[in-house]
Design a protein that fits this description.
Number of strands: 38
Distance between the termini: 80 Å
Helix content: under 10%
Largest sheet: 5 strands, mixed
Length: about 450
């Protein structure tokens, strides 16, 4: 009996020791796992514990060499680079047949550094230019919102070329029952106005397949139809007129005085919400479609009364940019957000601003400075300064890259001013249109495309 009891006691002690060892082993393994999972590592030389972080490369690419501080860490993307110490690091990405890409990153503790704008550029971009559309020698070409319009003056046929972000395009022709087409005015969306030599105009919504002819007042100019096709505006005899769109027939009225909206108007615009902006007495005013001024009352104090002559508008979503020109040919850029808060972004605007639907405004001034304004954060960020003659062409590929024509050269910039790449030493374009990752340009009546970015 005693031997049996001793045997049982020894067995119990053995099981206890085994369980204790198992628990201790589990705790040790779990601790080590958590130690590394939370980004810690042990520095053998310094005999210290260091906290590390992660660089997340979100772009997709194969056959690349990704290096951090000259150490090869991956040959594909996307990839998460773990065990990166906080501080400054140099990220390099190379690929055969492409120009090298580099950026200096600041890595912080407990924050994943995301890089999602890697854009590798082929060594020979010129070989990727493709001819897309050949227009007629007498065609007049108008750029629209994602499309081009082309016609031969006096004809009754209008060509529409839709430009897609994929690089493809679609051609379509619209025939009219009347000839004498002399001019086109494009509006936001696939909407435009046609003007004929007999004084009639036509509103066209290409996407909705709407076509309506009407007769504005004789001598009318800058005709606009609101987004709801409810009201039509036009300038004539120094006044701004507004009338119900359905009431605008094909026969001119004898008296338009009932539709006079504002006297002494030099220029005007309407946004997609129906708000009206107009210059009267050299001062910019605005209001709801009722025409009641007031919520842009600060414009005169910012610019000075009696100085303004021309107005244009650019809108993406709820974000509105106003470009105002003075009689001394100065150009101002204003940002008006969805709450009607006004901000003066530039007093010496050069060229046109470019917007995204995220509220990012890209613009340049006459001193050669290029900025981006984030409408959501109300933050202006200086990007770079360019010396000499240049033209800002717009966003390209994403919200991190833009194209500039510099002394006849096509140059790609990123917003970090880290990668400045000359794409074409001679840019043979009369006009440029950017659609996402595709560059379209006109030269001698030929529409060409340039693209190399894979989805």
């Amino acid at each position: 009996m005693k031997n049996s009891s001793r045997a049982k006691a020894g067995s119990s002690i053995g099981r206890f020791i085994l369980k204790l060892f198992t628990v201790l082993l589990f705790v040790a393994v779990a601790g080590v796992t958590l130690f590394f999972a939370y980004g810690y590592r042990f520095d053998v030389e310094g005999q210290s514990v260091e906290k590390t972080s992660i660089i997340d490369l979100a772009n997709r690419a194969s056959d690349v060499r990704v290096s951090v501080d000259a150490q090869l860490v991956s040959e594909f993307m996307p990839v998460q680079l773990k065990g990166i110490l906080p501080g400054l690091h140099t990220l390099n990405i190379t690929k055969k047949g492409f120009r090298p890409w580099a950026r200096t990153l600041t890595v912080n503790e407990d924050i994943v550094t995301i890089v999602e704008d890697v854009l590798l550029v082929p060594e020979d971009v010129s070989s990727l230019i493709q001819e897309a559309v050949q227009f007629g020698p007498e065609d007049v070409i108008y750029p629209g919102d994602g499309y081009l319009l082309a016609f031969s003056p006096g004809s009754q046929v209008l060509s529409i070329v839709e430009l897609f972000n994929s690089g493809s395009f679609k051609e379509e022709e619209i025939g009219f029952y009347r000839a004498g087409l002399v001019a086109v005015e494009t509006m936001p969306g696939q909407r435009f106005l046609l003007h004929f030599d007999d004084g009639l105009s036509a509103y066209v919504s290409f996407s909705e397949r709407v076509f309506k002819t009407f007769a504005p007042k004789t001598g009318a100019r800058k005709i606009r139809v609101d987004a709801d096709r409810r009201l039509v505006y036009f300038l004539a005899d120094g006044s701004l007129y507004r009338m119900e769109f359905d009431a605008a027939g094909e026969i001119p009225l004898e008296d338009y005085s009932l539709f006079e909206f504002r006297k002494d108007v030099a220029d005007y615009e309407i946004d997609e919400s129906g708000n009206v902006y107009y210059i009267t007495g050299g001062v910019l005013l605005g209001g709801a479609e009722t025409g009641i001024p007031g919520w842009i009352a600060r414009f005169p104090t910012i610019l000075g009364a009696g100085d303004l002559t021309n107005l244009s508008i650019i809108q993406e979503g709820s974000h509105v940019a106003l470009v105002v020109r003075s009689d001394s040919d100065k150009r101002y850029l204003f940002f008006l957000d969805e709450n009607r808060e006004l901000m003066l972004l530039a007093q010496k605007l050069k060229g046109s601003p470019f917007l995204t639907d995220h509220g990012d405004y890209l613009y340049a001034d006459t001193d050669g400075n290029i900025f981006v304004y984030n409408g959501k954060k109300a933050e202006t960020i200086p990007l770079t300064t360019i010396e000499g003659n240049f033209e800002l062409l717009g966003w390209f590929a994403d919200r991190s890259h833009f194209l500039v024509l510099e002394e006849g050269k096509l140059v790609l910039h990123d917003i970090f001013d880290a990668n400045v790449t000359e794409l074409l030493s001679e840019y043979p374009a009369d006009r440029t249109f950017i659609s996402g990752k595709i560059l379209f340009f006109l030269k001698g009546g030929v529409l060409n495309s340039l693209s190399w970015i894979e989805e």
